[in-house]
Amino acid sequence: AVVSTQSTGKIMTDSASGDHLKLAGEWQSLSHTNLEPLLQKLSAPFLIRKVAPRARPSQKIRFEGNAMNIITETGFMTKESTVVLDGTEFQDEMFQQVFIATAKIENGVIHVSGKLGNVNLTMSREVNTEGQMVLITKADDVECVRVFNPT
Predict the structure, then answer these.
(1) Order of all β-strands in the sheet with 97-106
(2) What's the rounded mean pLDDT across residues 134-151?
(3) Does residue 17 register a pLDDT over 90?
(4) Rounded to whole angstroms, how far apart are CA atoms 87 and 92?
(5) HSE toward the beta carbon, residue 59, CA cutoff 13 A
(6) Phi then psi for 21, rounded to 5 degrees?
(7) Are the C-beta atoms of 143 and 137 separated by less than 8 Å?
(8) With bands split at pLDDT 50, 70 and 90, how would you rate the model's confidence at 6?
(9) DSSP H or E segment with residue 121
(10) How far apart are CA 14 and CA 10, in angstroms?
(11) Residue that wins the pLDDT comparison between 2 and 25
(12) Residue 26 in contact with residue 60, Cβ under 8 Å?
């Protein structure tokens, strides 16, 4: 859940094209690479690091105004996040840590970047030419690629 929002100025985006809106809908995890090392880098609890790679999470994404709402469901947890897309700084909770970030849209790709504790964390989310959602998450030098099919 969003902890709070705080304005830090606007970043120009190309959201006018609307390509990012292809992310709206329901998605089911198909594959991932490097998920457990990513979770370890993010200080996820041991149990989550061991269970998450075998889980097949689903994500429901919707857009409301200048925000993207994401509901992630697995067999063991549900998490809702709101990403502000106009460059306004926002906060979210991840593994009992505060993630402070900003987001922007470029060429239909939603880029989120910020800090989780001492870790530089970036995420990019887009729909590829096969109609799959690709989520690339980088925590310092660890990169995880997750692919989701539409449901």
Answers:
(1) 2-6, 89-94, 97-106, 109-116, 119-127, 133-139, 142-150, 25-33, 58-64, 67-73, 78-84
(2) 98
(3) no
(4) 15
(5) 22
(6) -70, -15
(7) yes
(8) very low
(9) strand 119-127
(10) 13
(11) 25
(12) yes
